[in-house]
Every structure is written in C-alpha cells, then in structure tokens.
Backbone:
C-alpha cells in the first residue's frame, strides 16, 4: 500500500522565552489529531523539539494534501490561541498568515513529507531540530547516502552499491538540480558545502524510490525579517535497499557547526539529544537534534524509539559542549557570528544605513591593495 508520512512543525509559543513548547499546547494537538483518526489521517505522534510543536502524521492522501495541511494549520492556530491566552513567548510567531490557503508552504510552518509504497518492513527515522536551519542537514545527509566511510553499505550492500541521487535547492535563485553519486560526488560537494545558499531537499534510491526528504522553508525570506530560526525536520528511510538505521544516525556522532543558535545569527555545534533533553537554554542553545525511529506498518506508526537517548552518543554531546565553550569565546566576532549576507534580516542593514554616509574613499596610496567591488 502507498503511505504518506508528513512532519509539519511550527513555533506557536514557548516557556520561557525560546526554550520549550509547553504541555498545554501538545495536549491541544493530541486532542485535535485524535479526532481525525481514520478520517484525515491514519496515525500520528505529537512531540516538541525545543520551542517547536511537531506533528508526525501518516495518511493516504499524498504530498501537499489540502486536508492534511489544513488539519495541521487548525492545530497550530488553536495552539497559538491558547499560547496567547497564557502569554507564552512568541505566541503564533511562525503563522505568517491569517487565512489557510490550501497548503502551509510559504505560510511559516516547516514541512517534510514523502509518499512511498510500503516495503515488507519499512523503518523510518524522523529528525527534528531546534535553533538551526535546513542546511544543517547538508553534511549528515550527504554522509548517510554518499559517504562510504560512514555508510558501509555503499561498499558492501549490492542494493545500494550504485549510489543515490540528490536533489539540491539553490535558495537564492529558487531553482533545483539533481546530482547522482558517486559519479557527481565532487559537483554535489561543491554546492552543498556552501550552506548559506544550497540545501539538500530530497534523496532518491537509484531505482527512483524516495529515500529522504528535508524541510527547506526559510522564515526570514518569507516574512522579510528575522522572526525565528527555521528549525528544519527530515524523514529518512532505512534498511532493505536503504542505509541501515545505524548508518543514518552515525553522521551525528560528529557535532558539526551549523547556523542558528542565539537570534539565528551564530554558528554552533549540532547536539544529538534525547526527546527529554531537547530543551535548549544555554545562549538559547546549543542547536539540538532529535531522532525518533518508527516502523511504518499498513499506514500506522510503530514506535517511536528515542534513538539519540543511546549512551553511545555521550561522547558527541561532551564534544559538543567543548565546541560550544570555544565558539562562545568569540562573542560578536566571526566565525561564531554568521557572515554579513546571513545577517540581512537582523539589525545589520540599519547599522550600515546609519553610518554608511560616514565611509570615505581611501587615499590612492592606501587603496592600492584593494579593488572596490562594482
């Protein structure tokens, strides 16, 4: 049977500040979704990652379903109303419209969903982040599906030995490209290493079957100002012609640097944490990622298993804290602070406008080492 798995998330209110989506809001989501079982959706799981309310749903309506997206919007609007009543911080901040128009894309919430024919056994991992953006998945998703030093199956498993195809978005020009690995590995890396512009959206098995998907909504570009970090989510399939579940998790043993953290304006290490520990507080971070494992069975979710609760990730968490200490020592200096183009939606344009007229050309002697950008 064909099943669609959808993760739709939004920040609709938190306590205190940008720390945690409260139990009251999760209860609202649970009540609304439970009333739609065997109608709009087959199954669901409600959770939170930091200040984001996360809806994991299965159904048979395909990607971009008006009914499913409308249900998620109803949850977020109702929860935002309660958040406002409770005076929670950032109540409804990810809801950038007053009226649902058939799809939540471009309206603030983040979306990752995939439709597939269920295999004999279909494990999936749902990755949920807080205080970071979609490009946080570039490095780990490449390693899952393109790096034989991470995924031994690319060498040992004849079902994935031919590699995977990556769909990459250019978020500056709103265009995309498909690149096949291993043949085009260097071209892929040339793009996705530039995390400020290129993001991996989907990965496909060489047979054409969907293997993974990442949410790519950029809140600042939709709203025209900084209102919160994008906090991307992802769904990946494991085993039986896909990387093993352990190969999907292994990239996060290395806490790589990602954009986000405080005010969405700093680089910090991505910390793999259990569901209970997705409560970022230090400098509103460090950025967090959860991994919930499910078996998809006849449109239902068996699980979840809290995969990063494993003590095997303790060293990654310790290393993350050491990196966080190091990065914080830089204060408002790069590389902790993001590049200027990534600060477009902060106070940086106003600062440059305020002092811009005070800049004067260098003397001819002093300018010989520089060539002004035209």
Residues:
């Amino acid at each position: 049977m064909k099943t669609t798995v959808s993760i739709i998330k939004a920040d609709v209110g938190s306590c205190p500040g940008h720390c945690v989506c409260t139990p009251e809001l999760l209860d609202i989501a649970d009540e609304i979704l439970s009333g739609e079982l065997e109608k709009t959706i087959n199954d669901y799981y409600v959770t939170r990652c930091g200040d984001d309310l996360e809806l994991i749903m299965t159904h048979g309506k395909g990607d971009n379903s008006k009914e499913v997206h409308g249900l998620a919007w109803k949850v977020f609007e109702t929860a935002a109303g309660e958040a406002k009543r409770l005076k929670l911080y950032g109540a409804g901040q990810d809801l950038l419209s007053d009226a649902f128009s058939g799809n939540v894309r471009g309206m603030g919430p983040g979306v990752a969903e995939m439709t597939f024919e269920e295999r004999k056994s279909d494990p999936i991992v749902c990755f949920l982040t807080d205080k970071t953006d979609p490009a946080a998945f570039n490095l780990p998703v490449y390693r899952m599906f393109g790096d034989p030093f991470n995924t031994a199956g690319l060498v040992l498993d004849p079902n994935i030995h031919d590699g995977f195809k990556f769909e990459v978005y250019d978020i500056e020009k709103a265009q995309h490209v498909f690149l096949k690995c291993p043949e085009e590995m260097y071209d892929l890396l040339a793009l996705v290493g530039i995390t400020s512009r290129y993001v991996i959206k989907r990965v496909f098995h060489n047979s054409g079957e969907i293997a993974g998907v990442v949410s790519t909504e950029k809140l600042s570009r939709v709203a025209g100002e900084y209102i919160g970090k994008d906090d991307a989510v992802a769904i990946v399939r494991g085993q039986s012609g896909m990387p093993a579940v352990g190969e999907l998790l292994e990239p996060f043993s290395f806490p790589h640097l990602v954009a986000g953290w405080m005010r969405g304006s700093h680089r910090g290490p991505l910390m793999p944490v259990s569901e209970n520990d997705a409560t970022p507080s230090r400098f509103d971070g460090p950025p967090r990622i959860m991994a919930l494992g499910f078996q998809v069975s006849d449109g239902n979710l068996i699980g979840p298993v809290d995969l990063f609760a494993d003590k095997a990730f303790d060293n990654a968490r310790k290393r993350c804290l050491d990196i966080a200490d190091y990065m914080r020592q830089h204060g408002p200096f790069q590389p902790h602070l993001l590049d200027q183009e990534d600060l477009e939606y902060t106070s940086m344009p106003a600062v440059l406008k305020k002092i811009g007229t005070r800049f004067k050309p260098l003397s001819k002697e002093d300018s010989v080492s520089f060539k002004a950008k035209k």
In short: DSSP finds nine helices and 15 strands in the chain. The CA atoms of residues 250 and 327 lie 24 Å apart. The mean pLDDT is 93.
